[in-house]
């Protein structure tokens, strides 16, 4: 009888430890909150630090975004599709890392961490998905495409592990270059006048 009780309590303790380990593994890595409302995306773009250069055949515009600017625009874009309790963006060493707080099964708080590497191709900007984690657990690359397909929209489409900004979403502009460093994102655009 005593052995059965000890066996039961050991089994219960092991189950509790496993559940606690799983919850710890998927729990948020960083303490973050939702961005403050800064208006519409169009309004935010109008307020960005920019530099304009007029040439004989084209106009070049450079936009400078902080992590906060990018964070706010991203939140405005996804807020109706994803239930978030926190969102934070980090821009370092030509990579963008997004932390998004949400819940598993609508009750267990977790944090999805997504690493992107931007690049320019065919006059538009693309983002290659480098890594996805749920809390402290890495998601296998085989699932990346399933994750990415959920963000297809009028502005972006997904091809393999890349998110591609549709040209029509930035027309008449074309992307010339970008840089991501020290919490700043620089995007160089141009359009032909002739």
Main traits of this protein?
single chain, about 190 residues, alpha+beta, seven-stranded antiparallel β-sheet, four-stranded antiparallel β-sheet, 4 helices
Description:
- This protein has 194 residues and is α+β, with helices and mostly antiparallel strands.
- The protein has one domain.
- Helix content is 25%, strand content 43%.
- The chain contains four helices and eleven strands, in the order ααββαβββββαββββ.
- Strands 3, 4, 5, 6, 7, 8 and 9 form a seven-stranded antiparallel β-sheet that branches. Strands 1-2-11-10 form a four-stranded antiparallel β-sheet.
- It is elongated and about 95 Å long.
- The relative contact order is 0.16.
- The model has no long low-confidence stretch (mean pLDDT 82).
Quickly describe the structure:
The chain has 194 residues and is an alpha+beta fold.
Q: Supply Rg.
A: 22 Å
Q: What is the count of DSSP helices, taking H or I runs of 4+ residues?
A: 4
Amino-to-carboxy terminus distance: 91 Å
* Biggest pleated sheet: 7 strands, antiparallel
Quick check: average pLDDT? 82
Topology:
Elements: H1 2-26, H2 41-46, E1 49-54, E2 58-66, H3 67-78, E3 86-92, E4 95-104, E5 108-121, E6 124-134, E7 137-138, H4 144-149, E8 156-159, E9 162-165, E10 174-181, E11 184-192
Antiparallel strand pairs: 1-2, 2-11, 3-4, 4-5, 5-6, 6-7, 6-9, 8-9, 10-11
């Amino acid at each position: 009888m005593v052995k059965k009780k000890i066996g039961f309590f050991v089994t219960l303790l092991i189950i509790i430890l496993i559940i606690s380990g799983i919850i710890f593994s998927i729990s948020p890595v960083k303490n973050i909150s939702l961005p403050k409302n800064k208006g519409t995306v169009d309004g935010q773009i109008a307020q960005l630090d920019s530099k304009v250069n007029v040439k004989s055949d084209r106009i070049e515009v450079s936009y400078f975004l902080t992590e906060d600017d990018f964070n706010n625009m991203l939140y405005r874009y996804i807020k109706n599709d994803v239930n978030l309790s926190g969102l934070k963006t980090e821009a370092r060493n030509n990579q963008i890392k997004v932390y998004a707080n949400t819940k598993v099964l609508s009750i267990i708080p977790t944090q999805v961490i997504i690493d992107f590497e931007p690049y320019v191709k065919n006059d538009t900007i693309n983002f290659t998905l480098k890594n996805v984690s749920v809390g402290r657990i890495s998601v296998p690359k085989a699932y990346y495409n399933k994750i990415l397909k959920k963000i297809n929209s009028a502005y972006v489409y997904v091809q393999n592990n890349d998110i591609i900004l549709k040209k029509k979403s930035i027309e008449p502009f074309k992307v010339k270059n970008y840089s991501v460093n020290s919490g700043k994102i620089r995007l160089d655009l141009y359009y032909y006048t002739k």
